[in-house]
Amino acid sequence: MTAASALVADALRALAGLPKEGLGEERESRWRGRRIVRVGEAWHLGVLLLTETHALATAEVLRAADPGRRGYTAESARERAERRALALRGGFDEGDVVHVGWSVIDLAVVDAGGASGPLAMVDTVPSVRWSTAGGWMPLEAYLRERVELLRG
């Protein structure tokens, strides 16, 4: 049995030199208002984000952009435009991909046979739930496929 932490470490070595995407957190201050600021960067591998030190579960993904003056047919479209503008206001460049609301995955818990975020030990195999409706997939195959996709 290969540990989830070892599989992630192998993936990190394979990702060296490939482009990363921004990690953001929402902040608010009296002087600067609401904004999404850069707190790091990670490789985006589907439901996982990998940094040099952590595995993270993805949540909201947006692209920093000026909302412009548009009419919206849905309130949700207006809210998404406002979220993109918060990233721009927080220092991301126009068009940057920003991940917000991510959570840290505890690989030690997974290695010990438990579950954390989208990862779990399933029948002694580190596995990933790649979608809320999907089943479990072996983490090793998932990481191999996602790294190859990122390599293009």
Chain-wise SSE layout:
Elements: H1 4-15, E1 21-29, E2 33-45, E3 48-50, E4 55-57, E5 60-63, H2 75-89, E6 97-100, E7 103-105, H3 107-111, E8 115-116, E9 119-122, E10 125-129, E11 136-138, H4 139-151
Parallel strand pairs: 1-6
Antiparallel strand pairs: 1-2, 2-3, 3-4, 4-7, 5-6, 8-9, 9-10, 10-11
Helix pairs in contact: 1-4
Question: How would you describe the overall organization of this protein?
Answer:
With 152 residues, this protein is α+β, with helices and mostly antiparallel strands. The chain has one domain (4-147). 30% of the residues lie in helices and 35% in strands. The chain is built from four helices and eleven strands. A seven-stranded mixed sheet has the order 5-6-1-2-3-4-7. A four-stranded antiparallel sheet has the order 8-9-10-11. A hairpin with a 4-residue loop joins strand 3 (48-50) and strand 4. Helix 1 runs parallel beside helix 4. The radius of gyration is 17 Å and the shape is elongated. The mean pLDDT is 93.
Number of strands: 11
> Any low-confidence stretches, pLDDT <50, length ≥5?
none
State the share of residues found in helices, binned by percent: 25-40%
How many distinct helices? Answer: 4
Sequence of strands across the biggest β-sheet: 5-6-1-2-3-4-7
Helix and strand pattern: HEEEEEHEEHEEEEH
**Alpha carbon gap, first and last residue:** 29 Å
Structural class: alpha+beta
Q: Shape, please?
A: elongated
Q: What's the number of structural domains? A: 1
Radius of gyration: 17 Å
The chain-level mean pLDDT equals 93
Strand content: 25-35%
What characterizes the major β-sheet?
A: 7 strands, mixed
